[in-house]
Amino acid sequence: MYSVVKTSSLALCFIGFIFVSTRAEFFTAISDVEPLLETHIKIIEDLEEYIEKEEKRISILKRHLKVYQTEHEKAMEDIPNYLGNPINAFTLIKRLTTDLEFIEKKIEIGTEYIKNISIISDDDYIQYPSLEDLTGAAQALTRLQETYHLDVNDLAEGILNGVIYSTSMNSDDCYELGKVLYNEKDYKNALAWMQLALKKYPNDDELYNFTDVDILEYISFCHYLLGDLKNALNWTKKLLILDPFHDRAMGNIPHYRDALFKKQYDLSNKIRGVSPGKNQDTGQPTVDTNEEAEKPKEPTKYEKERKVYESLCRGEMEIPRAISKRLTCRYLTENHPFLRLAPIKMEYVYLSPDIVVFHDVLNEDEIFEIMMMARPRFRRATVHDPKTGELVPAHYRISKSAWLKDEESPFIENLSRRIADFTGLSMVSAEELQVVNYGIGGHYEPHFDFARKQESAFENFNGNRIATVLFYMSDVAQGGATVFTELGLSVFPQRGDAVFWLNLHPSGEGDLATRHAACPVLRGSKWVCNKWIHQGGQELIKPCDLEYQSEGIIRPLPRPLMKKTFR
Fold first, then answer.
1. Is 446 helix (H, G, I), strand (E, B) or coil?
2. Do the beta carbons of residue 493 and residue 474 sit within 8 Å?
3. How far apart are CA 238 and CA 476, in angstroms?
4. Residue 530, Cβ neighbours under 10 Å: how many?
5. Please, is 112 exposed, middle or buried when counting C-beta atoms within 10 Å of its C-beta (0-12, 13-18, 19+)?
6. How far is Cα 283 from Cα 48, in angstroms, rounded to an integer?
7. Helices 212-225, 247-272: inter-axial angle, 10-degree rounding
8. Which of 14, 296, 384, 462 allows an S-S link to 457, with CB 3.0 to 4.6 Å?
């Protein structure tokens, strides 16, 4: 923008000189020509200033280009490994959203022209992520940070669980991440990233579309929104040292001081036993006997489960000795005559309810075929709304999924037949094969696969979901475990294996112990496919038990490990 304006002004300047020269007749006297030398030096100075600014602008663009080229070369060396790193995924999306906007401002034509000419034939075209993608990637990083107890300083240096996987994040990366989290009202994590942005800011020689003053303003207001008035005031004072006439900061100082004085005054009264709102000038203070206010809040059911869930994701819990000592492995030869010729390796990882892992039940050709069929059909994964029964997207399930029918491919048909063989169940009322690829920090919070009585799901199916078969189509470098929060069980993905469990008691009641979750993927790409089998067609295979089983069965509690790291 600057170059266009400056060029125009220079052009107008030249026009003006031509106009003056025709009127003033400089050539008729040398004394009249001498002042033109001052005009001449003015043109030189203007051109030098213009060229200097253009060179600076080009230099900035070249530095951004170098970053794009360097990161692209790294990505092309091993695409799955590169994109399997959540830090790389975030910075890639950032470079194609906010960084691209900054670059557009630095060039005259802008990348809208590039976007328009980038469309090519055969339905292949350049795709650009949106700010929603940037927000999702930022939230994924904080989800990983909180679930796996990652240090924010390590994350910024490209370190995941003690291993360096990527280039360090610069001040701009940290700033954009903090800004996104601030806009999502995640002030605690926004503050941490803004402080890192400030720490890295002096070490960055690149010019960004923000200054250290902008960072300080975010830091001070995050402190204020988190109730830390003292730090909010102190950081605002630091801001005013750099920019003494900053309007918002000048207005916030008296506000923070008044709020801090009121907070300290109320605290003083509380210590003296004076109830807020009473007349403190009577000399007869009222003692506050509300002891309930002093007691720590009891964790909610969600918070308790969340703590167990995160511990299981980190691999910090083990099942009770009373159960683990009875777990066995064996070859499955029953259910179908073919299994006598090709028995399947099965491992019990829990008893009552039985959670079984079938090893090597999905081969490489099948995995490849299923992935290729699913890719063009991927849509944002949905969940059943318990009130309406409709399928809707949810923040607690981040992945994309596709559904494949048996008749579409011999691979899918053979897989359904194999599921029937090793589960011993009928596929008459089974759902289509669902294929899922988890996104950046992809997860699925604790849930049941079966529909509870108050829910209106599966009305178009023959009965409730009696069983789940979950296939792992990829190894996951770190994270991504399937965890059962009521059992204290963690099952980590192993390519080609399948986990199987029954969701219902023999009475048809849902088994609450099967509540499970998919942990966030810390590093790698997690692919799974699953088959949900319904009650229809199982009447003679799994007949109902006349004895009623209640949903709440008391089981031994899992115990935490002294020290164990997740995979």
1. strand
2. yes
3. 45
4. 17
5. exposed
6. 76
7. 30
8. 384
Q: Distance between CA 388 and CA 380 in Å, rounded?
A: 19
Separation between Cα atoms, residue 29 and residue 34, nearest integer Å: 9
Query: Strand 444-447 vs strand 482-484: parallel, antiparallel, or unpaired?
Result: unpaired
Query: Which SS3 state, helix, strand or coil, does residue 415 take?
Result: helix
Q: Fill in the DSSP letter of residue 292.
A: G
Q: Give kind and range of the element (H or E) at residue 372.
A: helix 364-374
Using CA atoms, how far apart are residues 319 and 489, in angstroms rounded to an integer? 6
Q: Give the whole-angstrom CA distance, residue 406 versus residue 126.
A: 33
- Residue 47 CA to residue 42 CA, distance in Å, equals 9
Q: Which residue has the tokens 């034939």?
A: 121
Helices 171-183 and 131-147, packing angle to 10 deg: 90
Instruction: Report the alpha-carbon distance of residue 414 to residue 342 in Å, rounded.
Output: 15
Between CA 483 and CA 486 the distance in angstroms is 9
Task: Using alpha carbons, select from 448, 422, 322 the residue that is nearest to residue 362.
Answer: 422
Residue 515 · residue 493 · CB < 8 Å: no
| pTM for the model | 0.80
Tokens representing residue 8 in the block: 């125009």
Longest alpha-carbon distance in the chain: 121
Burial class (CB in 10 A: 0-12, 13-18, 19+), 83: middle
Residue 112 has pLDDT above 50, yes or no: no
Tokens 């796996």 label which residue? 148
% pLDDT > 90, the chain? 52
pLDDT classification of 553: cutoffs 50, 70, 90:
very low
Token duo for residue 330: 């064996």
Separation between Cα atoms, residue 366 and residue 368, nearest integer Å: 5
Tokens of 368: 């490849």
Tally of helices (H runs) and strands (E runs) in the chain: 19, 21
Least confident of 213-217, 268-272, 376-380, 545-549: 545-549
Q: How far apart are CA 342 and CA 199, in angstroms?
A: 61
d(CA 60, CA 55): 9
Q: Output the CA–CA distances (angstroms, integers) from residue 224 to 143, 238, 260, 547, in the order listed.
A: 23, 15, 10, 59
Identify the H or E element spanning 112. helix 111-117
The single residue listed with the structure tokens 């040292």 is 241
Which amino acid is it at 31? Answer: S
Supply the angle between the helices 212-225 and 229-242 in degrees, to the nearest 10: 160
Residue 335: other Cβ atoms inside 10 A: 14
By CB neighbour count within 10 A (0-12 exposed, 13-18 middle, 19+ buried), where does 5 fall? exposed
